[in-house]
Design goal:
This protein has one domain: Aldolase class I (TIM Barrel), CATH 3.20.20.70. Helices cover about 45% and strands about 15% of the residues. It is built from ten helices and ten strands. Helix 3 links the parallel strand 2 and strand 3.
């Protein structure tokens, strides 16, 4: 169990990625992150300068996404996007691996992509998180191979999901499962100790946070940050 309110807050990347969030909402949610002293905000790429300005002088990092949400951009486009994000003030980058190439088992391509993303992130002093989008991967061997790629190239975090990986169900509706316990255990088992694990998607309550922490997760992506931390206060975390 987490020992303090700060420890819980510093697990949270406050997620500000929904396409309908307008600038006024982004400003307000950056203030939430500042008030609760979260690990970071993960904000839409165009708004990195806004977040950098609002969070200057705080311990809340500015993060953004690369190749989001489906990971299908050319490698060079992802590199250029990462360079710009870092130039504008981002210090954490969550990039989506090319899922189609993973499903094609084109490991040479994925190797080149991960290597390029690690180089651009680390040369700019940024943390790199690789999003697997596990909802699209129905074979655990693919997830294990991605963990091994993280190990080989020194990715900082292996991350489960974008939160937008909707899969069509038999009834015609779209659903996603996000960070499942099965996947978190698998990722923690197959990632080196130096590669941390981030859970994203359906981590919405304090109990969710504590559960995934017990599985070895050190970061979560959350939109329900305020509710999680207020619940922690009510339960006596200080």
């Amino acid at each position: 169990m987490a020992q303090s309110l700060k420890e819980i807050a510093k697990m949270i990347d406050h997620s500000l990625l929904h396409p309908t969030m307008d600038d006024e909402q982004l400003v307000a949610e950056c203030e939430v992150a500042k008030r609760y002293d979260t690990a970071s905000v993960c904000i839409k790429p165009y708004a990195v300068p806004l977040a950098a300005e609002l969070l200057e002088g705080t311990d809340v990092a500015v993060g953004t996404v690369i190749g989001f949400p489906h990971g299908s951009n050319h490698i060079q486009v992802k590199v250029d996007e990462a360079e710009r994000a870092c130039a504008e003030g981002a210090t954490e980058l969550d990039f989506v691996v090319n899922v189609g190439k993973v499903l094609s088992r084109d490991w040479n391509y994925i190797d080149q992509e991960v290597k390029a993303m690690v180089e651009v992130a680390h040369s700019n002093g940024a943390i790199l998180k690789m999003i697997f989008e596990n909802d699209f991967l129905d074979d655990d061997e693919l997830k294990i191979k991605l963990c091994e790629m993280c190990n080989t190239h020194g990715v900082d975090f292996a991350k489960t999901s974008t939160g937008f990986g909707y899969v069509k169900q038999e009834n015609g509706m779209y659903q996603y499962f996000g960070a499942t316990d099965h996947d978190l255990k698998l990722m923690r088992e197959h990632c080196d100790p130096e590669v941390e694990v981030k859970a994203a998607g359906k981590v919405r309550t304090l109990d969710d946070v504590l559960r995934v922490k017990d599985l070895g997760v050190t970061r979560i992506g959350a939109t329900a940050t305020e509710a999680i931390l207020e619940e922690a206060k009510r339960r006596g975390f200080e």
